[in-house]
TrEMBL record:
It comes from the Eukaryota. Its main location: cytoplasm. It is an enzyme of class 5 (isomerase). This is peptidylprolyl isomerase. PROSITE patterns: FKBP_PPIASE. It comes from Triplophysa tibetana. Its EC number is 5.2.1.8. Residues 31-85 form the PPIase FKBP-type domain. One of its GO terms (molecular function) is peptidyl-prolyl cis-trans isomerase activity. SUPFAM superfamilies: FKBP-like, TPR-like. GO terms for cellular component: cytoplasm. The lineage of its organism: Eukaryota, Metazoa, Chordata, Craniata, Vertebrata.
Length: 342
């Protein structure tokens, strides 16, 4: 243990064991999977991220060693731990300068967003020195003024290579592309069985995977477009899940992004029209449904059905509002009369 601490300290890392682990130390060969909870803090104790609370849920971090995670220091420090161990690792700036970008991805994932949302198409070092807002004041401040960080890790599980099924994020680029069709099909099967949440997770993981590959291509190039054409149907399926879950504004964002690139995508207009109708954007819904019929006249009966449903909801809402106003007026009149009589 003392030898490990000396080596870490020489590399700008100070380890403080809080709770000792159990069992023997692993040799951590490449391909080992580690599962751990983390809390990231400034040296003054200010907490930046906590895997137990990110996105309103408790979800441990998982790493497969040797896959070149964006924050190399995590791969370095976990190899000094045993299962059940809790330790603080205070790391110099040379290890933490990239953390704002990593944190942004983790926060996006915890909120069900694209992990690359808010990141520019550039290398990690360039992102460290860029000055665009990341959407979080604490990350903006840390990006502008990098500083040492304290990582508090609790090692939950250490799995040797071959003892677990490889997850998509840990695959090579070729393995990812090969796995996408099966993940898509798994999502479809889950959707048909009524497990909408699990289906959405499948579609989302495939989308995130393809977007990570797309980030390596020049926007507009043939390879980029091919990947985008794989992303689009997955994103539309994801939107269908979100519609059933009542996440209408997320649908508006995703479908608009598709339409901005492919202005003849009938499904995107149709799903966006339904989402507009759900949030009472009558004019926008009618415009989208009109475009659907222009692009594909065979869908006129489906559009008519959606328009009738929207109109019925609007009439019902107006009737309810009139009733509330009437009751409010009646109550106000009675209250006024009572006050006068008194």
């Amino acid at each position: 243990m003392e030898e490990i601490a000396i080596k870490l300290k020489a590399d700008g890392i100070i380890k403080k064991e809080i709770s000792s682990g159990k069992g023997e130390f692993s040799t951590f060969p490449d391909g080992t999977k580690v599962k751990f909870h983390f809390r990231t803090s400034l040296c003054d104790g200010t907490v930046l991220d906590d895997s137990r609370t990110m996105g309103g849920q408790s979800k441990p971090m998982e790493l497969i060693l040797g896959k070149k995670f964006k924050l190399p220091v995590w791969e370095q420090v976990v190899t000094t731990m045993r299962e059940g161990e809790v330790a603080d690792f205070t790391c110099d700036v040379k290890h933490t300068a990239i953390y704002p970008t990593v944190s942004l991805s983790l926060r996006n994932i915890s909120r069900g967003k694209d992990p690359l949302d808010g990141q520019r198409h550039c290398c990690g070092i360039a992102q460290v020195h860029s000055h665009h807002s990341m959407g979080y004041p604490d990350l903006d401040k840390l990006q502008t003024n990098p500083q040492p960080l304290v990582f508090t890790l609790e090692m939950l599980q250490i799995l040797p290579p071959g003892s677990f099924q490889m997850e998509i994020w840990a695959m090579t680029d070729e393995e990812k592309l090969g796995a996408i069709p099966q993940i898509h099909e798994n999502g479809n099967s889950l959707f048909k069985s009524g497990d909408i949440t699990a289906a959405a997770e499948k579609y989302y993981s495939a989308i995130a995977c393809l977007k990570s590959l797309q980030m390596k291509e020049q926007p507009g190039d043939e390879s980029w477009i091919k990947l985008d054409l794989l992303i689009t149907p997955l994103l539309l399926n994801y939107c269908q899940c979100k519609y059933l879950q009542g996440q209408y504004y997320e649908i508006l964002d995703h479908c608009s992004s598709i339409i901005n690139k492919y202005d003849d995508n009938v499904k995107a207009y149709f799903k966006r029209g339904k989402a507009h109708a759900a949030v009472w954007n009558e004019a926008e819904a009618r415009a989208d449904f009109a475009t659907v019929v222009d692009l594909d006249p065979t869908l006129e009966s489906s559009v008519t059905k959606e328009l009738r449903a929207m109109e019925e909801r609007i009439r019902k809402k107006e009737k309810e509002e009139k009733g509330r106003y009437k009751n409010l007026f009646t109550y106000s009149s009675k209250a006024s009369a009572a006050a006068t009589t008194g």
